[in-house]
């Protein structure tokens, strides 16, 4: 450990020792010196080292015994995202060495134990008692399944939490602490995320990404404590996953189901849920190419790009076939229904432009119903299909129509991405109605290939310095009273101009935005590190 200094032990008058300890902030417990570091909110370490990325809250709990007063008080670990709380101590810390093992107290943690052992060059000891120098993983307690406690003391490390996910996040903290030969500091980390949904979304429909590239992103996301990977795999330009129910719609370049299983399994090993999206009733051009009979046409017979005619039962059947099929391919708890940019509702007079939709709306919902009611009914019907598979569902905010008297299902979460659509509603309209919202703010979190329209590539610095999960639209935060309804956020890559960047260029371009977003979702308070310091830390951690 850098800065370590050995001091010869000798007899010292008890009163003098107590005075010395009182002036250095060391607490005496049972005659043994211990240190508890109290970090002021919004500040760094007392000596100005700025050792925590996030704003550290004051630590609590009893003083901890330490081997010797010869060690300096430990500094909080420097990780991305930063730990929430750290109780400092005096001691040598820990780093992996020959003969050290990773052991577990529960067989459910075997995967986490083997992964960490391989990453740190240690042996995996299985379910057995921890010895000198070992890392022990354990399940204990109740509460937030993503919380954990990491204790470094007496030459050992213990990572515990009420759930496997939390223990896994503790191993990510330890991995970063000892990266490049570093030392895990003596003391106790108590950590948990501010937001339960921390995601990255990838548009693989308009640009083909190899399975290996996606797997590399999963490993990156896992180390940054993300827990969602969204795959938008159906759009006008392509349908990118093998289908048995409708093989005729699949693009030449696509992922096989075996590829997808490896992706899903790898994600699960990192406690990441893959969230699939089959967007409808718009953005279905790849399906329409094989089934032109279901394409929406206006009163003049002109085809509407990417939109299916939602008055036709055949359109619903094909989409439901796909939903049912892919519910088995993606077993995770969440599903994205899409619902955005249905071009029929962007017409000046939807009923006049698409009389067949207006007629179908009246037939189903009554004489006063309009096209927006029919579109909302479509969304609810698709939600019923996925509800039968036990999924929690979300849809884009512009799929919730102001003009509709038919209400979207109450359990649909709003994926809020823009306030620029026709008839746009502010985020408070959704929040005020009690709906849960996920932040996809296109001002900060949209990486759109080729930068079409008004989009520019987002920077990590702008996210780090300006964005929080409460900034749902533009640059203005919603009132704090809504914070509990904002489940988290998703950084999204859209492939509008697929040749604008190679997949390796995309990986490089999103590197710092992903890190900044991870930090702000784990702890949405103002970070204590400057952007320059944060960027340097990211460079050191790799």
Automatic annotation (TrEMBL):
Keywords, ordered alphabetically: Glycosidase, Hydrolase
Positions of the UniProt region annotated as Disordered: 46-78
Organism superkingdom: Bacteria
Glycoside hydrolase family 20 catalytic domain sequence ranges: 198-522
Keyword Hydrolase in annotation: yes
CDD domains from the UniProt entry: GH20_DspB_LnbB-like
Pfam families reported for this sequence: Glyco_hydro_20 (PF00728), Glyco_hydro_20b (PF02838)
Compositional bias ranges of the Low complexity kind: 48-66
Domain Beta-hexosaminidase bacterial type N-terminal: 77-192
Record has Oxidoreductase as a keyword: no
Family: Belongs to the glycosyl hydrolase 20 family.
Designated name of the protein: Family 20 glycosylhydrolase
Taxon lineage: Bacteria, Bacillati, Actinomycetota, Actinomycetes, Kitasatosporales
């Amino acid at each position: 450990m850098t800065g370590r200094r050995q001091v010869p032990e000798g007899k010292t008058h008890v009163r003098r020792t107590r005075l010395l300890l009182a002036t250095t902030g060391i607490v005496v417990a049972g005659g043994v010196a211990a240190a508890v570091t109290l970090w002021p909110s919004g500040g760094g370490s007392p000596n100005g080292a700025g050792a925590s990325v996030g704003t550290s809250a004051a630590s609590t709990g009893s003083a901890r015994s330490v081997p010797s007063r010869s060690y300096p008080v430990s500094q909080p670990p420097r990780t991305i995202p930063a730990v929430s709380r750290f109780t400092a101590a005096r001691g040598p810390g820990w780093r992996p060495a020959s003969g050290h093992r990773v052991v577990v107290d529960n067989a459910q943690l075997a995967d986490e134990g083997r992964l960490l052992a391989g990453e740190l060059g240690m042996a995996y000891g299985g379910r057995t008692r921890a010895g000198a120098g070992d890392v022990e993983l354990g399940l204990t307690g109740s509460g937030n399944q993503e919380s954990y406690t990491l204790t470094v003391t007496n030459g050992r490390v213990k990572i515990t939490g009420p759930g496997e996910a939390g223990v896994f996040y503790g191993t990510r903290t330890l991995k970063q602490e000892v990266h490049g030969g570093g030392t895990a500091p003596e003391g106790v980390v108590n950590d948990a995320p501010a937001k339960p949904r921390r995601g990255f979304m990838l548009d693989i429909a308009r640009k083909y990404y190899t399975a290996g590239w996606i797997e590399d992103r999963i490993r990156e996301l896992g180390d940054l404590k993300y827990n969602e990977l969204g795959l938008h795999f159906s759009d006008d330009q392509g349908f990118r996953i093998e289908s048995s129910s409708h093989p005729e719609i699949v693009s030449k370049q696509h992922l096989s189901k075996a590829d997808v299983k490896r992706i899903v399994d790898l994600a699960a090993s990192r406690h990441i849920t893959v969230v699939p999206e089959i967007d409808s009733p718009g953005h279905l051009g790849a399906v329409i190419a094989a089934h032109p009979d279901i394409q929406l046409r206006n009163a003049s017979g002109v085809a509407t790009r990417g939109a299916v005619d939602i008055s036709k039962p055949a359109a619903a059947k094909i989409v439901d076939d796909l939903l049912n099929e892919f519910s088995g391919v993606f077993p995770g708890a969440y599903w994205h229904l899409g619902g955005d940019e249905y071009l029929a509702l962007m017409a000046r007079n939807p009923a006049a432009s698409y009389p067949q939709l207006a007629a179908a709306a009246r037939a189903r919902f009554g004489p006063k119903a309009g096209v927006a009611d029919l579109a909302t009914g479509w969304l609810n019907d698709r939600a019923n299909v996925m509800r039968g598979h036990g999924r929690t569902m979300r849809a884009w905010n512009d799929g919730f129509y102001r003009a509709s008297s038919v209400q979207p299902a109450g359990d649909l979460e709003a994926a809020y991405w823009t306030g620029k659509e026709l008839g746009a509603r502010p985020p408070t309209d959704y929040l005020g109605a009690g709906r849960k919202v996920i932040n996809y703010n296109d001002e900060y979190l949209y990486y759109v290939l080729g930068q079409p329209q008004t989009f520019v590539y987002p920077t990590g610095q702008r996210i780090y310095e300006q964005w929080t999960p409460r900034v749902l639209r533009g640059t203005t935060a919603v009132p704090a009273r809504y914070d509990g309804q904002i489940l988290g956020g998703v950084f999204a890559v859209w492939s509008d101009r697929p040749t604008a960047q190679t997949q390796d260029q995309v990986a490089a371009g999103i590197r710092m935005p992903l890190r900044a977003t991870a930090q702000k979702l784990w702890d949405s308070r103002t970070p204590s590190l400057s952007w320059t310091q944060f960027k340097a830390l990211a460079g050191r951690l790799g």
